Amino acid sequence: MAKAKAKELKITLVKSKIGALKDQKATMEALGLHKINSTTVQPDNPCTRGKIFKVKHLVKVEEV
């Protein structure tokens, strides 16, 4: 039998990091988001969900 593919999240930065708190900027760097409209695919796990929660007002999240 084939393995089930792990769920992933597509995260897109939709607002600028200017004016964000220092820890929020660090979180966006950890997610791999550098410029507006940059997109990254991350695994769907509690760690990633926590990072997204911290910057939820700056990003758009879609399930892949």
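The record above closes out task 2.4. Task 2.5 opens with a second protein, given below.
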Amino acid sequence: MAKALKMIFQLDGSKTVTCSLADPKDDLTKAAVEGVMQDMITKKALVVKGVSPTAIKEAVIMSTDKTPLV
């Protein structure tokens, strides 16, 4: 099973941008992830078409299964 951390940031209006990281640590906490996300917003580390995120929308860990076709 593959896992990925999805950090979803709010841009202006209803637009969002997602930053994904593969294989996140098992002991991640919401506080730790949101702290990094807030730091990214403050330092304008992420820019999409000239626009920087303004807020944190959510952070989730997504799990997916791969089933080969036979």
